[in-house]
Amino acid sequence: MKIFFGTKAPVRILPTLGPISLWIALFVFAPVGVIIYFSFLPADSAGEISAGVSLKNYWLLLTGDTDYGKAILRSVLYAFITNMVCLGIGYPTAYWIARYGGRFKALLLFLVIAPSWSCYLVRIYALKQLVGYPGILNDFLLHLGVISSPINMLYTSTAVVFGLIYIWLPFMVLPIYASVEGINPALLEASLDLGASPGWQFWTVTLPLSKGGIFGGTILTFIPALGDWLVPLLIGGNKVWMAGNLIQHYFIVRGNLAIGSSMAVILTAAVVLLIYMCIKLGGEDAVERIV
Amino acid sequence: MFTYLEKKPMRWSLFASGLILIFAFVIAASPCLAAGQLKTYEEYVASIPKGCEPVPRECFEQAVKGKTFAMYDWAAWWPEELYKGFENLFGIKIVRDNYPDIDEALAKFRLNPKTPYDYWLTNPKSLHYMKEWNQLEMVNHDWIPNVNRYLAEDVKQASWDPGYKYCVLTTLGYDAYVVNTNFIDKKDPRMPSWKFVFEGGDVYKGKLVMRNEMNRVIGNTLKYLGYSLNSTDPAELKAAEEALLKLKPNIMSFDSWPKRAVMAQEVWVVEGVVHDYLALGSLIGPKNPFYPAYPPEGCLLSPMLVVIPKGGNNPAACHLFLNYLYRPENFATLINGVAYGHGHIQIEDLLTEQAKIWMTPPEGYRQKCEVLMPPAFTGEGEKMRASIWEKLKK
Amino acid sequence: MKSLRTDRLLLVLVVGGYLLLWGPIIVLGIFSFNSSAFGVKWESLTAKWYVELFQTSAIMDSVVRSLLIASVTTMVATGIGTIAGYGLFKYKFAGRRFLRLSILLPITVPYVIMAGALLVYFTQIIHVPLGYPTIIIAHISFSAPLAVFVTLGRMQRIDWSLEEASIDLGADRLTTWRKVTIPLLLPAIFASAVLIFPWSFNDFTITYFVAGVGTTTLPLYLYSMLQYSLKPVLINAISLIFIITPTIGILVLSYFQREKQFTR
Predict the structure, then answer these.
(1) Is the same domain home to B257 and B389?
(2) Whether residue B151 is found in the same domain as residue B202
(3) Which residues on B lie below 8 Å from C129 (Cβ)?
(4) Do B284 and B184 form a contact (C-beta atoms < 8 A)?
(5) Is residue A287 pLDDT above 80, yes or no?
(6) Count of beta carbons in the 10 Å neighbourhood of residue B182
(7) Partners for C (CB, 8 Å, 3+ pairs)?
(8) Which chain B residues are Cβ-neighbours of C256 within 8 angstroms?
(9) pTM of the full structure
């Protein structure tokens, strides 16, 4: 049977892997290729594209008068904070579910997954309603007498970062849970038998073995947070822009495809670099844990 | 159920394709379900109220045959009964899409020429560009007798489109600002000047919303500084840039139609068309909290125009709708609902007192206001404004 | 010694995590039963917004559009994705690793980039008018990879000797596929469908970029309601639907797939 699969394999690969390869080539690689091409086309400020090749768009984005480097750096910073806080909350949560969940494991996991499956906009609105100015949290605090007048919590940079953490947290918990859960209990027992304290055991056995989950989770939170544009728009009041807003602005509002493309290409490059680093550091396991 | 599925996987896919077919059927059938009251042209002509005229037979028949009518306009603005009334009368299903601001809608037409909308409610800037890109149908004057009859003569020759060849004016708004008097004292000495918006940050504490359209915001800033809002003078624009950057910490958000936030009283000062907020304020409670400020420096005058993009499937329905809209009783419904200025000469008696108050600026105010003209949104003017806008947002 | 203090800290973080995830949603759900249209002050208990939801034709129209898009996407993406997962698991060939990483690409790159790229591609290169086809194509590109990886995960736990036995007993390839392989893969197909359907139904960014005329889906409509609605409480009511749909999906999934194995 092995031989059967071996010799006839090429014939069978086509019908199974053909459709997805074609699809990915046509609707993922081709569009990415097209934006790379567009990013080198010269365009005037109104977005009229002319023939030729130039690096003007990149030049404009990184060093130009409008100083977009800042927006990119800001996105990286926000995404980094988001990632770290999500790790800080997500790791203990995942660890706790895997270790102490017992028969409630499924329920506890479900409670993490359900929000991540529900509509992104609904969750942003939920957050807005809770912490908004005439908001439920404000009313509650006023009622308790903790504060004397309502406080402004929305429309600031802090609110944007908080929103990002809120939105992307579940995607950190799941991969970490999967890798902690996958650790062979025999290893843990062995380390205890060898006289390790629980704390020592965590640092020397559990943490290194769940590395894949951590980097998988990083891919799933850092990258979407880096490209997020709805949180700055709806929670940040459309005035603290991140890289995603610039892309949306150039593609959708200005219709300037060349500059929008160059922005997207820069961001894609950053993302690919990040994925590469995560795979290098976390091993193939990081990829396994993503899905 | 699942074990059943494991045994008979084919049944499952049959069931799923059945579902799809049902959805497809619902979608396809939905226009047919909306049968109109008027079946034939004769019935239509007989139903025309006094003082109005019917569209020609050709227009009516084409429009009804088209079954659907694709509209592109602001969300939740005009009274719903206008659309409902049209659908019920003619049995033409209105498919409405909404845009968050007009610049974004314009970019959509630019990227995707011949987007099949039959009707687009827009501004003079879009009119200019769409004409330049050759993406507009001309208005067929034979098909809109009510508009010819009731549109004021000076509007017919308006600067943005003399002879109303490509557009029909619907409403005319003053883009100034309103304050919520529950939180802000309207006797503030800086009011109603733009000074209150640009220098009164200590009073409204960051509760300011500005429109998310660069030409309007920068235009009104130029007005505050005492310049023309169509200025292309680099020094004047530099001054506007500085004023806006100074104002930025006091801005809560940029939003072109912050209806929910205004109604929830999340916002205290709104830069936008004042009539909108006066009409909205009456829904908050018995006491309308909004006070309109018409700055003596002047402000932007904002005409909303209906244009007919090329590529639409049912341009006849657009003419039919315009003709229907310009019937005095329908136009009065619109103006009573939105309380905007307008160019209809026959609805004065049909307007409510309230709407008249809301829509009318102080005596002689119109002379201080300006409409956006090409220098502001083309060439160097556009370039400088875009650069200010991006600096403001980054 | 350490355990008491660290355990307590751990518990605080876990409870904090769950509160953060669920607090806003629960409050939103509760306030959907509030009679005030601006849901920040509690007035009285009512279910009228749910009734109104079903009577608002614009909302129902958008629900139908979303369902249509999600059903087509689910069927095509599950089909393509499942057979690809099968092939990727069964056959070893040069470029397999590359293909795997390429399939991963659309789900790891931020949506806004891929959506922008697709917009340029559709409007400037292949000139497809924006509308249902573009939305569905875009959704399939993003969701077929999910099905691939769900299938891959499932296949590692399948006993493949059954397939070989079937061929040994003289069944041809096609019969084996129909009678053995597909039934073995059904749980994976089902899991993919349950995963993809809500994904497609809920997607905002991609639909927003490539939507055309008359294709305002429920999330797009919701977006306009967030800004303009005079009854924002209706959003609370809709949101409950958004929370309940995936919940039912997950419950059904975990019930039928006895192993409690979840994937994103």
Answers:
(1) yes
(2) no
(3) 112, 114-116
(4) no
(5) no
(6) 12
(7) A, B
(8) 2
(9) 0.87
